[in-house]
Design a protein that fits this description.
The protein is mainly alpha-helical. It has helices spanning 3-23, 26-47, 57-83, 86-90, 95-102, 104-122, 132-159, 163-177, 191-197, 199-209, 222-242, 248-252.
């Protein structure tokens, strides 16, 4: 495949992601993805400084950013990749290029959210002792699982159109089931099992560990299991892209 064709394929997916995320309603998207997170961080870290609840705001913020990466990978990554699946089938586009193009918008938003968090941390007295590699690992797990889940969700929507109305509720449920608003230790005896079963649990704790040593210790083998699960979800989604549908309307819709 020529470099020009490769760039064109990359541009098609990037444009599709941007169109879904920003072009249809740019003011709303700007408010939702940038202004609202910035306002929340400013309010919590500056106006409410000194209260006991605010001492852990960075841990909540980074966990929320990791979950948003997962949700954005579903909406602006996997679903766009499903819509443009003909690129993988007919133009012999490498799978890694499709993944990179589909994740361009979610990763960019994640980088913006991380920048906002670190700017707030610089203006506060919260100690930063984490490792960048742990943040990268958290982003990789969330992005891979979100991209694969988005492809599978788009496939299911083709069979069951009403699923499109259910998807936002399922994403909200994933926020509740993922330890963003609480810690893994709050699950007591289920802590280890939940960390093994839910890769986003590991991703959020790795995100917390990326900015502070206050993150909780993960169970043994939790990180390899989370990487394997997220990779399996992504591979399942990519394999689904190659399977032709029996419905003409779904295949050409």
């Amino acid at each position: 495949m020529s470099p020009t064709a490769t760039l064109l394929a990359f541009g098609v997916l990037a444009e599709g992601s941007l169109k879904r995320a920003f072009f249809q309603a740019p003011i709303r998207a700007l408010s939702k993805h940038i202004l609202l997170p910035a306002a929340l961080l400013w309010f919590i870290s500056f106006l409410a400084r000194g209260t006991a609840a605010v001492d852990s705001w960075p841990m909540l913020a980074i966990a929320g950013a990791v979950w948003l990466l997962f949700a954005n990978s579903v909406n602006y990554g996997g679903m766009v990749l499903w819509h443009e699946r003909w690129l993988l089938r007919e133009a012999f586009i490498p799978a890694w290029l499709l993944v990179a193009a589909a994740e361009l918008v979610p990763i960019t938003l994640f980088a913006i959210h991380l920048s906002l968090i670190h700017l707030a941390l610089l203006a506060s007295s919260f100690p930063q002792r984490g490792a960048t590699v742990e943040t990268l690992a958290a982003g990789g797990i969330a992005a891979a699982s979100g991209l694969g889940a988005g492809i599978l969700a788009a496939r299911l929507t083709g069979f069951r159109p009403n699923f499109a109305f259910l998807l936002p509720k399922l994403l909200l449920a994933s926020l509740v089931l993922t330890p963003v608003l609480y810690r893994l230790s709050a699950l007591h005896s289920l802590e280890g099992v939940w960390a093994m079963a839910n890769p986003l649990s590991v991703a959020t704790e790795l995100g917390r560990a990326g900015i502070s040593i206050q993150a909780e210790a993960l169970p043994r083998y939790a990180i390899p299991v989370a990487c394997a699960l997220s990779g399996a979800i992504l591979c399942w989604g990519l394999l689904t892209l190659r399977v032709r549908s029996t419905s003409f309307a779904e295949e050409h819709g």
